[in-house]
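Quick one: co-fold with tryptophan.
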Amino acid sequence: MTRIVSGIKPTGSLTLGNLIGAIKRFVRLQEDMEDTEFFLFIADLHALTSRQIPHKLRKHTLDVAAMYLAAGLDPEKTTLFIQSEVKEHAELGYLLQSNTYMGELERMTQYKDKSSKQNQNIISSLFTYPALMAADILLYDADYVPVGDDQKQHLELTRDIAERFNHYYHDFFKIPEPIIPKVGARIMDLQNPTKKMSKSEDSDKGCITLFDNEKQIRKKVRSAVTDSYRKIAYDPVKQPGIANLLNIYAGIREEKIETILDMYEDKTYKDLKEDLAEVIVAELLPLQERYHKLIKSDTLQDILDKGREYAQNIAFKKVRKAKRKVGLGRK
Ligand code: AMP
Ligand code: TRP
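Sure, here it is.
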């Protein structure tokens, strides 16, 4: 049986970028792969690497879980749970942190980027976070880990940490492989199509969140930046705005870019925008309806309870063995 593990950090409102780049991909993977067990957790411990407002963190944690389910995640196939509810993540995180070198963590580009944007009070878990991420993965003996390309380096470090641990303490961890989407899977800001559409910048004109209403969606798509070529073609360098609109269209419809291009070759930018707004509305409104039902329901709570129990059972055994391996405990 193959195992796939992934996590998503519950910071800020979810965006169309998250839906296309992470949520829909995971749901598709779950539909396409047979004989596979899926683990998906909301990485709330990772959210603490930057200052959070407690009630917002709690809300975002549940929002992410509900959105995955609303988007079609099947709780029969996927163990969905909240990271902090399975305390073994933190426990193994510490054991792995004690097998990770300062130099390795100093090389992480995400750490360098994020810490260079702050000049004081950088939280120390921002630095050690890749060891916790390694624990998230290695706890479950994952074969594959679907992540965005920004996480590739963390996954390589996970492999290095696992190999080192295996070397010192004899074979113990499975070495995981990443599953990284091909280029084009990155959705850009509608106002600035060379910048990633991101939920960290509070929902501005260039970012469609999964909670936007019909009017907001239409307005944001209508005012998306394009260019003066007046030709619909896929060229992310020369025409990043149009390429982004095509990517969003293809991403939601789960079609190839060429298929969408064929439909719009002789049409105007206005046609493309009007239709795209329609496509987004048709995707998001039913998603929101399912989300609203779920967020209030016992179903969501039951799924998370069941997920926690199942994950805990596996994680508990793995950590017990890991502690023995490194010499902790009385016997
Ligand atoms: P983040 O929101 O940056 O924590 O990312 C959560 C997940 O959503 C990761 O798997 C990202 O790769 C994916 N993601 C976030 N923003 C985008 C985007 N603009 N385009 C595509 N994927 C994204
Ligand atoms: N670090 C990932 C991100 O920021 C989220 C994450 C945490 C993760 N633990 C993980 C992803 C384990 C895959 C596997 O997107």
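If it helps, The pocket of adenosine monophosphate (ligand 1) is lined by residues 8-9, 17-18, 20-22, 147-148, 185-187, 196-199 (CB under 6 Å).
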